[in-house]
Each structure stands twice: as structure tokens, then as C-alpha cells.
Amino acid sequence: MAVVIRAAGAGDREAVVRLLDAAFHDDPVSNWVFPEEESFRRGHPLLMGAFLDLVLEGGRVDLAEDGSAVALWLSVPEGAHDEDDDGPALLRQAIDPDNKRIEAVGRLTSGVHPTHTAHEYLWMIAVDPARRGEGLGTALIAAALERCDRNGTAAYLEASSARSRDLYTRLGYTVLDPVLELPDGPTMWPMWREPRG
């Protein structure tokens, strides 16, 4: 199936936030961050919007033309890592100051994020739940990985479910150690892909 992909812009924000919110409604990490339905309903769309705003500002948002799937990518330079980064704390304050898990997941993923070489970071990918299984996510990732291969750039992500981990493995990613175990929560798999010549 041919998927027409374009770069999303500020005018797509509302639709993309809705898509991210719907697609991650059953995600283990999202449900760990927001374990109660009311907090999920209130806070999750705000968190998705904050993530999207960060990537719209400094990265690339690949959107299927029909709005059914989206991928958020950031270019990460070699050595980019700031242990004193206030981003997770600021995000928590903006979304839900009482929810320590918002900050925790940001700090924990930052702690396992590779810094040894420049790479493209797949922050999030979402497919409309009604369209899963059609190859939309694979098409979005494959297009970005073709860019990585052309440019000789590695790619990185954290898989938030065993299902997504297996998909990324089929696309050439390998699991890095250590695997991230969220406190009293799900596993996340840091994954790396070297460019293919």
C-alpha cells in the first residue's frame, strides 16, 4: 500500500494531538504515567500536545496525508546529553505537578539514551486504532529509515510494548542494554539501528 507522507505543521496540531491521544490510549507506558482514567482523560492529551510542540519546534513530524498515522523525529547530535536537564520537571509542572511519573519517565529514558554518535530519534509513532494492521506505521518508519541510510545516520527509539519491539526488530533495530524497567510498571526497550549502505 502506497502511503503519501508529508511534513506536518502547526495547522495540523489539533488533529495530530487527537491521533496521538487515541493511539496511545492502550499503551503500557501511557497507562503507567496516567493509571486512573480521569487523570488519563485530563492529562494525556496535554502531554501528547507538549511532545508534539517540542518536535514541531526542533524536529520533523511525518504525517500520512489522510491523517491516519504520524511519526515524530528529532535529530540528536553526538554527545547530546544533559543530566541537569530541567525538561522533565518543567513538563510535569505544566501537565500535572502532582504526577511524579511524568518527570520520572523523562529522566529514565534520558538516562538510557545513547550519546556516542549523532542519530535520528523516533520519539513517537502513532496509527489511528481503526487503521492498525494496514502497514501505515511501517511505511512511515521505512521512509525515515531510507533518509537515514542515504545520509549514513543511525536511528534510535524506545519501544513501549513487546509488539512494537518486534516490529522495530523486523525493521533492523536491535535491543540495547540495559532494558528499562519502569518502577512498578512496564518494560521499555531502547533500540538502535545502524545505517545500511
Structure, described:
This protein is globular. 44% of the residues lie in helices and 21% in strands. The protein contains seven helices and eight strands, in the order βαααββααβαβαβββ. The model has no long low-confidence stretch (mean pLDDT 94). A hairpin with a 5-residue loop joins strand 7 and strand 8 (187-193). The chain is an alpha+beta fold. The protein has helices at residues 13-23, 28-33, 37-58, 87-95, 100-112, 136-151, 162-170, and strands spanning 5-7, 60-64, 69-76, 119-127, 154-159, 174-175, 180-181, 187-193. Strands 1, 2, 3, 4, 5, 6, 7 and 8 form an eight-stranded mixed sheet that branches.
Strand content: 15-25%
Q: Structural class, judged by helices and strands?
A: alpha+beta
Tell me roughly what share of residues is in helical segments: 40-55%
On the 0 to 100 scale, the average pLDDT is 94
Instruction: Give the N-terminus to C-terminus distance in angstroms.
Output: 25 Å
Biggest sheet, open or closed, and with what strands and sense?
8 strands, mixed
- Distinct helical segment count: 7
| Poorly predicted residue ranges | none
**Quick one: overall form?**
globular
Order of helices and strands: EHHHEEHHEHEHEEE
Strand tally is 8
Radius of gyration in whole Å, from Cα? 16 Å
